[in-house]
Amino acid sequence: MPARLGRYAVRRRIGSGGFATVWLAYDEQLDSPVAVKVLAENWTEDATVRQRFLEEGRFLRKVESPYVVSVYDAGELEDGRPYLVMSYADQGTLADRLEVEGLTPAQALEVVRQAGAGLQALHERGVLHRDVKPANVLFRTVEEGGAGAVRAMVADLGLGKALDVSSRLTMIAGTPSYVAPEQAQGEPLDPRADQYSLAAVAYLMLAGRPPYAHASLAAAAAPAPPPPVSTSERPLPPEVDAVVRRALAPDREDRWPDVTSFVAALDAALAPAVSAGAPAAWLPVDPDLTQPGARPTARPSVEPLADPVPPRRRRGRLVAGVLAGVVALAVGLGGGYAVQQRQVHDATVADDSGTLFVTVPHDWAAAAAPAGWTAPTDDGGRFPALSVGTSADWTDVQSADQGVFVAILPGTELPDRMPRHPECAEADEPVDGTVEGHDARTVLYTGCPGGVTVERVVQLAANRLLWVQIRSAHSATANAVLDDVETRGI
Fold first, then answer.
1. What is the pLDDT, as a whole number, of residue 49?
2. H helices then E strands: how many in the chain?
3. Does residue 70 sit in the same domain as residue 14?
C-alpha cells in the first residue's frame, strides 16, 4: 500500500479492476476523505487505455450534478501513472445494499430517480455511461436539513463515450445482464442504451431478481422477454410492468424517448404502491458500511502468530489440467505471518515469496500460513500458496469459520471439473469468463456451513494456474475478497 498518492495520504484500498485501483485517501489540506483512482501498472504504456482513463475524468468534469460522482483533482505519479481524485462514497454501492436486504418500492423508485437524474445530466452534456449496473450506483452521506442523508450517484465511466464518438465507432463492452442489445451487437449508441440498463436495474430492485442472467454479450444481443416484474411475493400494479418492459424493449425505437420520460412514467405507475410516501431518509445511513475513520496515523506493528494447522480436506489430483475431486488443498503450508494492516476493517496478507497478495476483512487475518505448498500434481513441485482465515481450522468441512486459500500450481488449461462440496446444499453452474484478461472458471456453492463457498481457477500463464477458494458468511464479502487477490511476477 502506498503511503501517499500525490498530496493525498492513503488509508486503504477500496477496490480494483482490470484497469485501475481505487484507494481511500485523505485530503489533509481540506480535511476530507477522497477516493483516488489510479491506472493499473500493466496499462501505463498502453496509450489507448491511458487515454480512456483520462477521458473518464474529463467526462465527469463536464457534469456538475449531485447525482454524478465528482472529480476534484487529477495528477500523475512518479512512475507516470495518472490518477483521478473523486468524491468518496462512504455508504457503499447498490450491489452492497441488495446483498444485505431488498428495497421497498418507494426506495427503489428513489434510487431510479436519483440515478436517472445523473444519467440525464450526462446525456445533456453529450456523454453516455454504457455500464449502468448496481455496482456503479454509489451511495454517499450528505447533510440535508441538518441531518445525515444518503444520496445515490452514478459512477465509473470507464466505458463512457462522447455521443459524437459513439455514433461512429462503438467498442463492444458492458455487463451482459444489463447491457442493451444494440450495445452487445456493436451498433452506434444513443442515450436509450443507458435507459435500457437503468430499467434492468429498476427491475432487479422491484422484482428481487434481475430480468436476465446473460452469461455473455452474445446472449444479451437477442434477449427473450423477461418474466413479469410483479410476483405474488412482491405484488405491483400492472402499469409498472408495462413501463419497465417498454424501457427494456429490444428495439430502441420502442423505448421511452429519454431517461427522464422513463423515470416519470415509473413514478406514476408506482404511485399506488408508494402512496404513503417514502420516509425522509429514504435509505438509512448505515454506520457499519465503509466509513472514512480517523485521521491517518502510523500503521501498528503486528506480532507474528504461531504456525496454523494446514487445511485438512480430502486431497485430489490435477492431471492434464483436470482438477478432480479437490475440496481444499493447502498441504505443506506453514511458516511466518506477513500481514500489513490497513485499518480496522481490512488487512493485506502476502505469501513468503511475494507472489500472492489478498486483502481480507481484518478478523480473517487471525491465522495465516504463507510458506507455500507442494502442488497435488504428478510431478509435484513447490509453489507459492497462502492460507488466511478466522482460525487455523477454517477449512474443516463442517466449520463455520471464514477464510481464503490462494495458490499457484502447474497446468496448461482450465480444469474440466471443479472441486465438489457435499457439505453445501447447492452448487451453481460453473461460470466461464475472464479475470483481468485471463481465462477463468468460477463456481458458487450455497447452503454451506457458515455461508457460501467460492472456487475459482484462473489460467494465469501458459503453464500456470491460480486457484482461489473462499469460505464466507456472505457472498458480498466473498466477491470483495475475490476482487482483491493479486499476483506479482507471473
1. 76
2. 10, 26
3. yes
Instruction: Report how far residue 211's alpha carbon sits from residue 226's, in angstroms, rounded to the nearest whole number.
Output: 5
Instruction: Give whole-number Cα distances, 15 to 24, 35, 263, 323, 360, in Å.
Output: 9, 10, 30, 30, 12
0.70 surpassed by pTM? no
Question: Which grid coordinates belong to 174?
Answer: 458492458
The CATH number of the domain where 10 resides is what? Answer: 3.30.200.20
21: helix, strand or coil: strand
- Cell reading at 462: 501458459
Summarised one tens digit per residue, pLDDT across range 271-289 is 888 865 544 446 666 655 5
CB 97 within 8 A of CB 208: no
Residue among 90, 96, 131, 156 flagged as catalytic: 131
Q: What is the pLDDT of residue 292?
A: 46
Q: Residues with Cβ < 8 Å from 386, sequence gap 6 or more?
A: 333, 349, 350, 351, 356, 358, 368, 369, 370, 405, 406, 407
pLDDT number for residue 285? 67
Angle at 281 between CA 276 and CA 282, to 5 degrees: 60
Alpha carbon distance 324, 418 (integer Å): 7
131 is catalytic: yes
DSSP designation for 332:
T
Bridge partners of residue 15, in order along the sequence? 22
Q: Is residue 146 part of a domain?
A: yes
Count how many domains the chain has.
3
Check whether residue 80 and residue 105 sit in a common domain: no
Distance of CA 206 to the CA centre of its chain: 21
Low pLDDT (below 50) residues in the chain: 159-173, 278-281, 290-345
Q: Which of 124, 121, 130, 273 is nearest to 205 (CA)?
A: 273
For residue 303, being part of any structural domain is answered with: no
Q: State whether 255 and 126 are in the same domain.
A: yes
* Domain of residue 437, residue span: 317-487
pLDDT of residue 314: 29
